[in-house]
Design a protein that fits this description.
Number of strands: 26
Helix content: under 10%
Order of helices and strands: EEEEEEEEEEEEEEEEEEEEEEEEEE
Shape: globular
Number of helices: 0
Distance between the termini: 31 Å
């Protein structure tokens, strides 16, 4: 099931290890966690199950990924840059044991491994923390399903069994991402995963063509100024974005488990449906990607397991 994409969309392209899942409707490209050659090898995002691209009915649904370098200009991709995630890159924003660790001591980032605290400051996603030990992955790929499993145990009380499954529906253009996290350590797990959702349809750069709608009413928690219009259940840019400056901020979605991002130009959309209500919701919107970021809270005692699921339904309007 492992393959590489054809080098057919421009010069100076770089291929990365990945898998492809297919059914009669869609083709899904999933990046392989690989400590030597993987697309993402830094310390922010969970390495597993990053859906780089979905192809459906002649359309694509995530940003171009092979040469994404974190800037507005396509350039040489840096796998060691914390910010160069793509597609469905997920992060467990609050690491385990960071606040209690002293400088030079270890802490845990789920989906990454054991890192070293560098300074007596709050954890920051962009800081290039030293890696003590990357977590190892067990991967099982089938035609329309793939699973990633990571077991990590430490000498300082934290441990977990983490599994992410990506499953294609048999009869529809739906992709399910199913997570299972079990606390195998002696200390409780308090963390807050979210998906960055780097979306761009048919390589149409972000602007007024895009609109996000929610199942519940929503309110702005930050000031978006004149750059966007937020109604009771939707958010839309008022103009195209032409530079690297983002439109960003938090919104209260009143525990909405469903949102839909659509593009009036490409006449495509994706409905994202979760089985756990978000604790918070952040929008990071810039020329390269429209990023809806729902975050949930997880509290797991020793021996307990928490499961959550997200469905992506791709549509041609």
């Amino acid at each position: 099931m492992q393959s590489t994409l054809a080098n057919n969309t421009g010069n100076n392209r770089t291929n990365f290890p990945h898998y492809k899942l297919k059914n009669k409707d869609i083709t899904v490209t999933i990046l392989k966690p690989d400590p030597k050659n993987g697309y993402y090898r830094s310390t922010r995002f969970d390495w597993s199950g990053i859906i780089a691209q979905v192809e459906y009915n002649g359309h694509t649904f995530f940003q171009e990924w092979e040469q994404y370098d974190g800037t507005i200009n396509a350039g040489q991709h840096d796998a060691l840059n914390n910010g160069t995630g793509t597609g469905t890159a997920e992060e467990f924003r609050s690491p385990l044991g960071y606040d209690e660790a002293k400088v030079g001591e270890p802490f845990v980032k789920i989906g990454v491994g054991i890192l070293e605290k560098a300074e007596n400051k709050p954890h920051h996603w962009a800081y290039p923390y030293k890696v003590i030990e990357f977590g190892k992955w067990k991967i099982k790929a089938q035609k329309n399903k793939i699973s990633f499993v990571q077991d990590l145990n430490t000498t300082f009380g934290y441990g977990y069994h983490y599994e992410k499954q990506i499953v294609l529906s048999k009869n529809s253009p739906v992709v399910s991402v199913i997570h299972t996290l079990k606390n195998t350590g002696t200390k409780p797990i308090h963390t807050n995963p979210y998906c960055h959702n780097y979306m761009r349809f048919d390589n149409d750069f972000i602007g007024k063509n895009y609109k996000i709608e929610f199942s519940n009413t929503c309110q702005a928690l930050d000031d978006f100024g004149t750059k966007a219009t937020l109604t009771d259940k939707s958010f839309q840019l008022n103009s195209d974005l032409l530079d690297a400056k983002p439109v960003e901020g938090s919104i209260n979605v009143n525990q909405s488990k469903v949102f839909t991002l659509s593009n009036s130009k490409t006449k495509t959309s994706v409905e994202v449906r979760s089985d756990v209500a978000p604790n918070s919701f952040y929008l990071y919107v810039w020329r390269m990607a429209f990023c809806p970021e729902p975050m949930i809270l997880i509290d797991i005692k020793q021996g307990e397991t928490f499961r959550w699921k997200t469905d992506y339904h791709f549509k041609k309007n």
